[in-house]
Amino acid sequence: MKITLNGKIGEHLVTFESDLGHGAAHWQDNKPLSNTSYHIELEINDFFEWGKNITLAEKHNCSINLIDNHIVFNAKVISCEEQGLLVLSLGKDIIFIEASHSCDIGSYVSFFTTPDNVMLHPIEL
After folding, report:
1. Is CB count within 10 Å lower at the N or C end of the chain?
2. Euclidean distance between the first and final Cα of the chain, in Å?
3. Which residues contact 20 (CB under 8 A, 6 or more apart)?
4. DSSP collapsed to 3 states, the chain
5. In whole angstroms, what is the distance from residue 11 CA to residue 124 CA?
6. Rounded to whole angstroms, how far apart are CA atoms 121 and 113?
């Protein structure tokens, strides 16, 4: 995913923009440079419980938004593995999350977590 860093929040948290929206996350590399574009891998370290912090999405699109100190994702389910591992399409990228149970392939889910549970790993292309 390609992002542009907007600034820092505290020691390791950064704000960013992408084609899918905006958010905040934990930066996993050297000091980030504001107003600089990076290709990143996005990792989410949280457990999602249906009806609590993950639901079926009303909108069938992919997005990232920062709302009330939570980063909210909308993504498409492309695979449901055993024990609630969901493989999701977030735009052109693939992410993995753990959930309390699986759901239908092809459905869209909306889920949220705090920015400190979202890691941005810069990668070289």
Report:
1. C
2. 11
3. 1, 62, 63, 64, 90, 91
4. CEEEEEEEECCCEEEEEECCEEEEEEECCCCCCCCCEEEEEEEECCEECECCCEEECCCCCCEEEEECCEEEEEEEEEEECHHHEEEEEECCEEEEEEECCCCCCCCEEEEEECHHHEEEEECCC
5. 24
6. 18
* Contact in structure between 56 and 103 (CB atoms under 8 Å): yes
One-letter identity of residue 51: G
Place of tokens 């100190």: 69
Token reading at 93? 């990228």
Share of the chain above pLDDT 70, in %: 99
Find where tokens 């958010």 sit: 23
pLDDT tens track for 41-83: 999 999 999 999 999 999 999 999 999 999 999 999 999 987 7
Q: What are phi and psi of 117, to 5 degrees?
A: -95, 0
